[in-house]
Amino acid sequence: MSKSSTPSPTALSKLVNPMTNGQIEKLLCHIRSALRKSGPEFSKEGVQLALMRGILNTRVAAAVKAAVHQALNESINIIDCILCELDRSRTLLDILNGFEKRFEKRLGDYHFGTLVENSILTTIPPGSGVEQGIIVEFFQLNLNEYPHSLSADELKKILSREYKLRGLKIDPCAVAAANEDKPFGLVYPNCAVWEAGGEWHHITFKSFNYRLAVCVSEGVGGLQENNMWFGGVRKRGKITE
């Protein structure tokens, strides 16, 4: 099984102008408001003890920083998920079968497409060794920019261009692993695409009746959704045998 961390930011956009004092004060107002609402949930003595020991302020500062980073990434339609480790000897089917144990659901609870066949899943050959420090980047397409509904061929061209411009490597196993440790797809419907034998394939992870729906199919049909996140690998990690 892969080991991953929570979605985490990287230096995706260079700092041009630092956050202003006005922005900080506005954010503090929201934090104060949230604390006032949730304040009754915590005891006065417990909070004071955590403050005296320097635990609470450290954790709050770290949480705020992480929240700001994630909000900025989401605002520019980019989310990062860092995979601490990924066993490259596992096939895509191995990863999907691992979902059954991880989420304590029968495989039948997943709503697979009609083409979850080994003939598709085995188009991605397994690798070897354990890769560390993989950054899986998810991005969205602004389909509203286009005056008409995109055809499958148009979407293929756009995706090929986007992956190249963003410096992303198509990696369905890494995208699947990013969905493995937590129901990432329940919040962010996401997918991976790949080409094999001149044919395009895709796998999607999204919510269906409050469950994680996993679909594997040929082509790119159904990916023309404004809320779909496309995944790829930005940085190659270190492989150890």
Walkthrough of the structure:
The structure is a single chain. The chain contains eight helices and eight strands; from the N terminus they run E-H-H-H-E-H-H-E-H-H-H-E-E-E-E-E. The protein is of the alpha+beta class and 241 residues long. The protein has two domains: 3-9 and 77-240, no CATH class; 21-74, no CATH class. Strands 1, 2, 3, 4, 5, 6, 7 and 8 form an eight-stranded mixed sheet that branches. Strand 5 and strand 6 (211-218) form a beta hairpin. The two termini are 16 Å apart. 24% of the residues are buried.
Secondary-structure topology with pairs:
Layout: E1 3-7, H1 21-38, H2 44-52, H3 55-75, E2 78-87, H4 92-102, H5 118-121, E3 130-140, H6 152-165, H7 172-178, H8 184-187, E4 190-196, E5 199-208, E6 211-218, E7 229-235, E8 238-240
Parallel strand pairs: 4-7
Antiparallel strand pairs: 1-2, 2-3, 3-7, 3-8, 4-5, 5-6
